[in-house]
Amino acid sequence: MALDREFSDYNTAVKRGANIDATIEAVNLTTSGNTTLGDAAGDTNTYTGTNQFNNTVTVGVDGTGYDVIFYGATAGQKVFWDESADTLNLDCTTQVDGTITVGVDDTGYDVKFFGATAGAYMLWDESADDLILAGAAGLSVAGASAFTGNVTFGVDDTGVDVTFYGATASANVTWDESDDALEFNGAAILTLGTSGAKTSTANTLVPVMFTAATEVIAAGTGGAISVACYCSHISADAGGDAFTIASGTVVGQRKRIYFLATAGGTGVVTGAFRGADNTLTFTNAGEYAELIWDGTDWLDVELGSTDDTNIATPPALSTV
């Protein structure tokens, strides 16, 4: 049956086998079988009411598609399938209430999220099997996090600074990549102990050794003993020499002062030592003091002598 006229009924039903070449204006249009609406690229089909499709809706065929646009209530908000670019553009707020899976096991795809700053983005790089934060993009973790694998910052010969903050202002531990050093700043200390002990006594401090060259202070000179190196050799003239030692630069810093020679006088070092002691006196050549900085005082780890004849008379601590 071929019909060629205008339909304008309340209910229009077209059964299988019917061919219609007409303008159809119907409140309810029911079709069965294959239905083609429009036969030219410029034809437009407008649906102004509620439309219900009870089966698969296919636009185009494999290798030949067509643009499809879904508009929202706000200007510029739409979902657009661009057939020439083979791209689905979501120019709208998108809510996904189910699982999102990109690719399958062993065959993935790149996924990129751009930020508001040029060059800042997060990229899942499927070929590298890596999540990359590029440019100004950073990672902020507000809650507790558990890492079950290795965590690597930078690559060999190209590192990054890493800072761990404490509960006290200015207290932090920083890996400074330019200095190749782990730095304890402010009130931060490194301790060893059991049951969560956080004391800073001598038997829990982890020693830090400075590898700068040994300092040598000649007799008759005196002055400040360096805290930028581990070992300092001092000497005294006949009248004795006065020295000072400043605070350590990091908790756990080790310092060795060796009394190399004397013309008869003593070497007196003034500084913050254990408790109320503020003076360390060297009398005989060969005496030495092994010290460790606990954040407040230079604690004496060992006071001794390399000279067997004076081993019983190590340098003496006192309060002056």
Low-confidence stretches: 1-6, 194-203
What helical percentage do the residues reach? under 10%
- Biggest sheet: strands side by side, in what order? 14-16-18-21-22
Largest sheet: 5 strands, mixed
Radius of gyration: 41 Å
* Oligomeric category: single chain
Mean pLDDT: 84
Structural class: mainly beta
Number of strands: 23
3D structure, described in words:
By secondary structure, the protein is mainly β. Among the domains are: about 70 residues, no CATH class; about 30 residues, no CATH class; about 100 residues. The chain contains no helices and 23 strands. The strands form 7 sheets. Strands 14-16-18-21-22 form a 5-stranded mixed sheet, with no helix packed on it. A 5-stranded mixed sheet has the order 15-17-19-20-23, with no helix packed on it. Strand 19 and strand 20 form a beta hairpin. The chain is rod-shaped.
Provide tags for this entry:
mainly beta, single chain, disordered N terminus, 5-stranded mixed beta sheet
Summarize the structure.
The protein is mainly beta. It has strands spanning 2-3, 11-14, 19-20, 28-31, 68-71, 78-82, 87-91, 111-114, 121-125, 130-134, 162-165, 172-176, 181-185, 215-217, 223-225, 231-236, 241-245, 254-262, 267-270, 279-282, 287-293, 298-305, 316-318.
List the helices and strands and how they pair.
Layout: E1 2-3, E2 11-14, E3 19-20, E4 28-31, E5 68-71, E6 78-82, E7 87-91, E8 111-114, E9 121-125, E10 130-134, E11 162-165, E12 172-176, E13 181-185, E14 215-217, E15 223-225, E16 231-236, E17 241-245, E18 254-262, E19 267-270, E20 279-282, E21 287-293, E22 298-305, E23 316-318
Parallel strand pairs: 1-3, 2-4, 14-16, 15-17, 16-18, 17-19
Antiparallel strand pairs: 5-6, 6-7, 8-9, 9-10, 11-12, 12-13, 18-21, 19-20, 20-23, 21-22
